[in-house]
Amino acid sequence: MEKITTDICIVGAGPVGLFAVFEAGLLKMRCHVVDALPVVGGQLAEIYPKKPIYDIPGFPSILAGELVENLMKQIEPFHPSFTLGERVEKLDKQEDGSFIVHTSEGTAIACKVVVIAGGLGSFEPRKPAIASLESYEGKGVTYMVRDPEQFRSKRVVLAGGGDSALDWAIYLAGIAEELTLIHRGSTFRGAPESAEKVLSMAEEGQIKLLLKSTVTDVQGDGKLDAVTVLIDNETEYQIETDYFIPLFGLVPKLGPLEHWDLELEKGAIVVNTLDYSTNIPGVYAIGDINTYPGKLKLILCGFHESALMAQSAYNIIYPDKKFVLKYTTVNGIQELS
């Protein structure tokens, strides 16, 4: 079991969680960020990295993925640490008022403040309706690509028509022994340049492409060894494979947070707008996961909530110090050593 000690544990590595690292860093507070996704950026990175965003101050237009990159550069001076690909499961409050946050993989984060910046909640994969699919999870069926090397020299079947499916098809084609991309439509939903690349690779024989096709069954003896594909609602076709990766997007769910004794309203966490604290002292909620009168689910609102949260958290981390607002134009950015 890995044990990590920090000032603030931030649950959620989306844009609001990343900006919270910046606001905390300005006040000399260390942060450790946990996210169930294998990459930082939340929805921006996983669902629509190439989608333009128009309401970030100072940027008439910025791609979602570029915004994540900029946020990561902005927090570099504060050296945050990350636990990715692990879902937060349990919150234990200690006698001294501090917390231990436990993840699905056994990581324990000791901290004085917990900040929930989980967006719409923890993201879980949208699974296709295949009767025996779950029995092969971890045995050839996976819903995310965490380590591409896992698929080196293996036979891989991908399913999906969005950016994630296209990007991984292009990337894994150079790693897998054989790669097949299956899409139920005749055109792709992803970026046009990615779609053109996939079509070109299919023509050159680098990947196998089956359009207007659906995986209807999975087979194997304790481990996946084949999938059945229905082509054009007429012909069944079996493909021998080592891995099946359906990439049909992610579904947000509050998950284990529902059992943390937080005050909830319609699936969101109720907060005090004075500092975005929850009903549990030392636990804050910022971004789309919280609710209050007049709430707007906008990234820029989450940025504002991060700033007020950090000022309040400072009083918990440094109870004997008086908070003094210092403008970065005067004080600059001082690295945490």
Please explain how this structure is put together.
This is Ferredoxin--NADP reductase. It catalyses: 2 reduced [2Fe-2S]-[ferredoxin] + NADP(+) + H(+) = 2 oxidized [2Fe-2S]-[ferredoxin] + NADPH. With 337 residues, the chain is an alpha/beta fold. It has helices spanning 15-26, 43-46, 64-75, 163-172, 192-203, 299-317, 328-331; strands at residues 3-5, 8-11, 31-35, 52-53, 62-63, 81-84, 88-93, 99-103, 108-111, 113-116, 122-125, 155-159, 178-183, 208-211, 213-220, 224-231, 235-240, 243-246, 250-253, 264-265, 268-270, 283-285, 290-291. The longest helix is centred in the C-terminal third of the chain and has 19 residues, at 299-317. The chain is elongated and about 70 Å long. The chain starts with a strand and ends in a 6-residue tail after the last helix.
> What is the fold-level CATH name, i.e. the topology of the largest domain?
FAD/NAD(P)-binding domain
Q: Biggest sheet, strands in spatial order?
A: 6-3-2-10-22
Instruction: Return the CATH class of the largest domain.
Output: Alpha Beta
What gross morphology would you assign?
Answer: elongated
SS content category = alpha/beta
Q: CATH superfamily of the largest domain, please?
A: FAD/NAD(P)-binding domain
Instruction: Compute the CA-based radius of gyration.
Output: 22 Å
Query: Could you say how many structural domains there are in total?
Result: 2
Fraction of helical residues:
10-25%
End-to-end CA span: 26 Å
Strand content: 25-35%
Strand tally, please? 23
Mean pLDDT: 91
Return the CATH architecture of the largest domain.
Answer: 3-Layer(bba) Sandwich
> What is the makeup of the main sheet?
5 strands, parallel
Question: Which blocks of ≥5 consecutive residues have pLDDT under 50?
Answer: none
SSE string, helices as H and strands as E: EEHEHEEHEEEEEEEHEHEEEEEEEEEEHH
Count of runs of 4 or more consecutive helical residues: 7
